[in-house]
Structure formats: C-alpha cells, structure tokens
Amino acid sequence: MIGIQIQQYAAQKGRFRLLGNSSKAQSFDLKRGRVGLEVALWLVISLILMAPLLALMTSSLVPALGVPLTWETLTFSAYDEMVSRQGMTRRAFSNSLLLSISAALLLMVLSILIANSLRKSSAKISTWLLSSIEIPYALPGVVLAIACILLFAKPLPFINLALYGTLWIIFIAYLARFLSVALKPVLASINEMDPSLEEAAQIAGASPSRRLIDIVLPLIAPAVGAGGLLVFLTSVNELTVSALLWSAGRETLGVLIFNLDESGDSILAAAIAVLVVLMVFVLMMLLSLCARYLPKGVVPWQS
C-alpha cells in the first residue's frame, strides 16, 4: 500500500493537457551517431530476443535434450506428438485464447468507464479506488489465487453456483489481476485531455454518453487498444495465477508448458512454446493488416 501511494503521488506531480491526438512520435536526427546506435540496438535485440528464440526452436527439433541439431538429428516428432496426439494441447490453446481475449475485451470496456468516472471523482475517492485496483496486480499471483480459492471454494450464496474447478474462477482472477494493466494507459491518456473539450460539447447540449462517444473515446482509443493488447499478451501465457486454479480439462498454456518441463518433457515443452510464439506472431500480423481500418494509434506499432 505504501508503494502504491508513492507511485500515485509521483504520477500526479506532472500533468499536461492536450487538445488532440498525441500518437505521433517525436523524431530525432542522430546524424553520425545513428549507425553506432542502430548496431548497439540490434545487438541488444539479438541477445534478449533472437538468441533465446533460436535456442527454443533448436531444442524443439531434436529427439532429446542435449543432442546437437544436425540433419541426422532433425525431427518434428515433438510437434507431431503435441498437435496430433495430445488432446490437452488443443484444450490449453482454446482455454488460453478464450480467457485472454475475453478478459482483454471486457477490461477495455471497463477501463473506459472507470477512467472516465475517476477523472470526475474527488481526489480521495480516486486514490482509494486506484489503490484497490492495483493491489491484485502488485501482489504475487499465488496470493491472488489463494484468495480466489478461499472466496469461491463454496458455491455462491442464493444462486448455489460453484465456480471452483471451472474456467470462471480463472477468468475472474484474470480480471482482478490485469485491470490495472488495462486501466493505466487509458487513465494516463484521459487525464491529459483538456476539460474545455467536454465543456464546449456540454454547452452545445451534448449528453454525457454523447460526449464520451464523440469526444473522449476517439482521443483515448490508442490507449484503450494498447491496454487491451497488453492484457492479451500477458494473460495468454499467464502461469502464477492459473497454476493453483486450473483443474483437469481446464489447462492453460502456461500451466501446460510448466507441467511438461517439470515432468522432464522439456522437448515437448519447447515445441509448445514455439507454437505459442508463432500464434502471437500471427495475431500481431493480423492486427497490422487491420490497422488501416482502426483509429490511428490503436495498434501501437502502427502509430
């Protein structure tokens, strides 16, 4: 709680009001230093991204861990095993996609409504609500999972509905944990808006819902899209919460990869991990193709 209060205090020290969309990036002329900086950046990218990915792909193409990859040892048996013969792979992919996409879409809507409400609330109420929203993300995932188990171990009162052992308990945990991830960029964007924009629309007779749709939403759309994308990319491979909440038939990708690696099937775990990377890459390419049909800045790397 002390850490959250310090963070909120620091974030409120500097605010700038904007009258329009600020998605255009500032350009800098590096002159002679451009080549050296680009070489350094490519080295860093190779070290932290390309090298681990190549190691992962290499491990998934050999018959056993530690066997060097050659034309004689090259095999796709791990992929064939996980895709064709293991039903839990399809379940894990479908469960993770369902949970992550549903959580991202719902949190995008909630972040718009919550950010718009917080902007008009008093400082004390805003501070209390933001602290409550950030606690599930600041705490370790296993702590949140234990809290969900204690809360939903028994059927819900009045409706007698049991959530424990279903995907619903994981979904609720995802909503609690990643609400802060979706809300942060939206709240930062909506706080930068000049109040005179809505005041002018209010004088012209626009209702609160019309002001939200016609004025606020177009300006914060890039932040909403970025927040939803962050939620999806974070939750699709989530492990710490799902590790305690999953049950038979409710596996997620993070749980599947962890269980395979812990049981000694590191080659199968590597194959699943490569398929996850490929899935995320394909989804990002589809977003890039749809970028021209979306408001500018909704797809962060296309802004």
From TrEMBL:
* Main location (coarse class): membrane
Gene3D superfamilies in the cross-refs: MetI-like
Which ranges does the record mark as transmembrane? 39-62, 97-116, 128-152, 158-176, 215-236, 267-287
| Species for this entry | Nitrincola nitratireducens
Q: Which protein is depicted?
A: Spermidine/putrescine ABC transporter membrane protein
UniProt-listed InterPro entries: MetI-like, MetI-like_sf
Topology versus the membrane, per the UniProt entry? Multi-pass membrane protein
The processes (GO biological process) annotated in the record are: transmembrane transport
Gene Ontology cellular-component terms for this entry are: plasma membrane
Q: Where does it reside? A: Cell inner membrane; Cell membrane
Any Pfam family: BPD_transp_1
